[in-house]
Every structure is written in structure tokens, then in C-alpha cells.
Amino acid sequence: MKARTLPRLTLFAMLLIAPLAMAQDAGVPWGDLNEDQQRVLQGFAENWDQLAPERQARLSKGAERWSGMSPEQRQAAQGRFQQWRDLPAERQDQIRQRYRQFRDMSPAEQDRVRDNFHRYKRMPIERRQQLRDRFRDMTPEQRQRLRDRATDRPKPSQRR
Asked: What is the pTM of this model?
């Protein structure tokens, strides 16, 4: 009796799970988007069914975020998007690679990078230029030593 029960339970479980798995692979149907999302994504309407499910999901989330933005936020986002489009393809690839590296960091490492970035942005412009010039003039070995030293250094809040 037990020998027949396990295959039946397995089959039953597979039948229950299969529609969920297929629904995830199906993406986001155009009709499931709300009016605002459809308006934002109208340029994709004709080919929506041909888009990869992951892209449909990203676009629908982005359209939802866009709909929740104020006019000022939308204008700022459009400006950033235009700056992105104006970048050479090689620079875009470099930025994507760095973003993947950042995403792969531990939360503590991400916090350290964010803290350093905010400290840098608070510096006077002249000091930032001095740092950029000094870094640019370093040899690759000197740059690597600086990076290594920075990863071993405790955060400012941890120093005495």
C-alpha cells in the first residue's frame, strides 16, 4: 500500500505545483496591468506578448514606480535616463559590471561603499579633484594597494 501511495502523492503534488510554475513563466499579461501602467508602457503594447517574462515584470514594476512619482521626480528621472542613453556603450557596460559587483557584495560592504561615496560627495570640489588627480597618477599596483588597504580599514564609526 505504501509503495502506491508515494507515487500518487508525488503526482498530486506535481499537478498542484505545475500551474504555479507555468504562471511564473508566463510573465505579466497586458490585461493584468492597471490603466497607469498600460499608459506608461503603451509603446510596448503591440509586442508585449513577445517580451521575456522577466522583462515584463521589470517593466511593470518600473511603470508602477513611475506612476507614483511627482512631476519633479519624473523630470529628474528623465534627465538621468537621457544621460544614460548619451553614454557610450562601453561606459554603460562598465557601469552595469560595477553594479553587478556591488550587488554581489555583503550588506556590510555595500554600506561601506555607500558611506565612502557620501563622504566623498560632501567634500569640497577642490579636494575631490585633488583625490581624482592623485588616483589617476597612481600606477595600477598603487591603486590596488589603496583598494586593499581600504577594505581592511574599519569604518570611521568603529575607530577610536
From this structure: 0.57
